[in-house]
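Action item from last meeting closed. Structure (92 res):
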């Protein structure tokens, strides 16, 4: 099972997670600087984070907001790219 996960992700899960976190923070910062906001998705995520925050998880800071904002863009693109990569590699 670990081999399938590594094959799907393209590297070890930890390295992929680390790359996605760094890339999400960078994309979140860039989009924030450019004042580009995917309003509907972002506000849904913001309401969810605020509900969690109000339940007592006050350790979230602005860095988590940048991560979340970037992840909303990076993770779906990553998944679509991996799916296209797998579909292209199955030609027999």
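Sequence:
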């Amino acid at each position: 099972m670990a081999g399938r996960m590594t094959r799907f992700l393209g590297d070890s899960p930890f390295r992929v997670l680390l790359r996605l976190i760094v890339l999400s923070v960078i994309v979140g910062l860039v989009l924030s600087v450019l004042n580009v906001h995917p309003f509907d998705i972002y506000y849904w995520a913001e309401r969810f984070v605020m509900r969690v925050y109000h339940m007592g998880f006050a350790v979230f800071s602005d860095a988590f907001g940048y991560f979340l904002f970037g992840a909303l863009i990076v993770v779906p693109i990553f998944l679509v790219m991996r799916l296209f990569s797998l579909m292209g590699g199955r030609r027999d």
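Note appended to the action item: The mean pLDDT is 80.
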